[in-house]
């Protein structure tokens, strides 16, 4: 672009962009300088070296990139950062009776995954991007992207503080928010300063984590975090299967016990939109084809986009919540014990034995199974329900 054209650009007032984002459904918007996140980079590198990332890639893969906004947009000068709430009341559950009148077993889904809340966030950010581009500036939307540490951008823009569970909390509104940014080369003025810590001496999230994954204030050991373990390939760790409970995707425990969130929840959250999925019928999931599973739950992070991991997770939950005497549960276990994939067979062994249905394992003839995953499950004691 000729140098003379650059002087004709209009720099929008930061307040205009904040107001524009609010009109397009964003709950909080702030502007900060696109400077490198030096401290964040050091934290990522140290925690990765200590193994706390648990194999997670995302922003751990290249901290030098995800902690420097100019890597995502060369010559970036500002970040317009936004938060959109996903705090909703659960949709009504419809209990479909199983054999003998028992309710069908279901798995719970974390709030942020009831719907694609990132789509609504990106729509609001896109409106800000359009305004910048129309003014002659470059802009790029980043949300839930490994190119940028969203929480640090939001912290610097003054949207909230880091809680002890490592989530960002907005003053008076808690942490039920998805975060995203618009990077731009426009020289926007910052709108706020980092918010002071609001947690004080509270440690409820640390004690409320079912696996003790929050090993220090603001430090999460991903190797113990149920939300992350549900997204990791390979067998689900035996030592955390019982603690998983009914969580099929994600875990909200550290947010549910958080006092700012509990206060915000008393303010009558809006109802969940049509199509929100707070629970999933486990028997339907285990009976579905691979294509149907990935079409239904495609917005979730599924390792390598392989449906076997959805079945793996569902079998662990089934072992924790189902009634082994239910004929439909027994039929699902029989199918999975005979499944061609040894990962599915192995977790079906665990679920059947946890539910006291060793007879189904014997019936399937798995004593002769030579797969190491299956043999390891057969050799390991299971805590009965």
Oligomer kind: single chain
Count of distinct strands: 11
Average pLDDT over all residues: 94
- Write down the Rg: 23 Å
Describe the largest sheet: 4 strands, antiparallel
**For the largest beta sheet, what order do the strands appear in spatially?**
1-2-7-4
Helix content: 25-40%
Q: Helix/strand-derived class?
A: alpha+beta
Kindly estimate the percentage of residues that lie in beta strands according to DSSP.
5-15%
Span from first to last CA?
A: 69 Å
Low-confidence stretches: 1-5
Shape: elongated
Task: Give an account of the 3D structure.
With about 375 residues, the protein is α+β, with helices and mostly antiparallel strands. The chain has a domain at about 1-95 and about 110-230 and about 250-280. Helices cover about 40% and strands about 10% of the residues. The protein has 20 helices and 11 strands. It has helices at about 5, 15-25, 40-50, 60, 65, 70, 115-135, 150-155, 205-210, 225-230, 240-245, 255, 260-265, 280-285, 290-295, 310-320, 325-335, 340-355, 360-365, 370-380; strands at about 30-35, 80-85, 105-110, 140-145, 160, 170, 175-185, 215, 220, 245-250, 280. The strands form 4 sheets. It has a 4-stranded antiparallel beta sheet, sandwiched between helices. A hairpin with a 2-residue loop joins strand 8 (about 215) and strand 9. Helix 17 runs antiparallel to helix 18 (about 340-355). It is elongated, with a radius of gyration of 23 Å. Residues about 1-5 have low confidence and may be disordered.
């Amino acid at each position: 672009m000729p140098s003379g054209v650059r002087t004709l650009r209009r720099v929008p007032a930061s307040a205009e962009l904040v107001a524009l984002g609010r009109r397009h459904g964003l709950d909080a918007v702030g502007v900060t300088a696109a400077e490198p996140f030096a401290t964040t980079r050091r934290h990522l590198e140290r925690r990765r070296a200590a193994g706390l990332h648990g194999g997670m890639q995302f922003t751990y893969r290249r901290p030098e990139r995800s902690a420097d906004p100019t890597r995502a947009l060369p010559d970036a000068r500002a970040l317009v950062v936004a938060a959109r709430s996903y705090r909703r009341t659960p949709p009504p559950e419809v209990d479909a009776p199983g054999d003998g009148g028992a309710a069908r077993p279901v798995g719970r889904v974390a709030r942020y995954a009831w719907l694609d809340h990132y789509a609504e966030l990106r729509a609001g950010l896109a409106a800000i991007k359009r305004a910048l581009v129309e003014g002659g500036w470059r802009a790029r939307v980043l949300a839930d992207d490994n190119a940028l540490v969203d929480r640090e951008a939001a912290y610097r823009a003054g949207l909230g503080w880091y809680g002890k569970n490592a989530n960002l909390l907005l003053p008076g509104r808690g942490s039920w928010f998805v975060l995203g940014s618009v990077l731009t080369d426009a020289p926007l003025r910052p709108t706020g300063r980092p918010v002071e810590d609001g947690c004080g001496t509270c440690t409820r999230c640390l004690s409320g984590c079912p696996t003790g994954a929050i090993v220090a204030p603001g430090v999460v050991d991903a190797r113990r975090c149920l939300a992350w373990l549900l997204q990791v390939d390979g067998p689900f760790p035996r030592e955390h299967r019982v603690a998983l409970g009914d969580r099929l995707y994600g875990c909200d425990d550290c947010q549910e016990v958080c006092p700012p969130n509990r206060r915000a929840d008393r303010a009558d959250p809006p109802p969940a939109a049509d199509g929100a999925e707070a629970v999933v019928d486990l028997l339907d999931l285990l009976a579905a084809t691979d294509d149907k599973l990935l079409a239904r739950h495609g917005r979730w992070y599924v390792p390598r986009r392989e449906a076997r991991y959805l079945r793996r997770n569902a079998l662990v939950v089934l072992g924790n919540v189902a009634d082994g005497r239910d004929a439909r549960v027994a039929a699902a276990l029989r199918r999975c014990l005979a499944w061609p994939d040894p990962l599915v067979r192995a977790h079906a062994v665990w679920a059947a034995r946890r539910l006291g249905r060793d007879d189904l394992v014997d019936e399937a003839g798995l004593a002769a199974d030579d797969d190491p995953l299956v043999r390891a499950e057969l050799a390991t004691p299971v805590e009965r329900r």
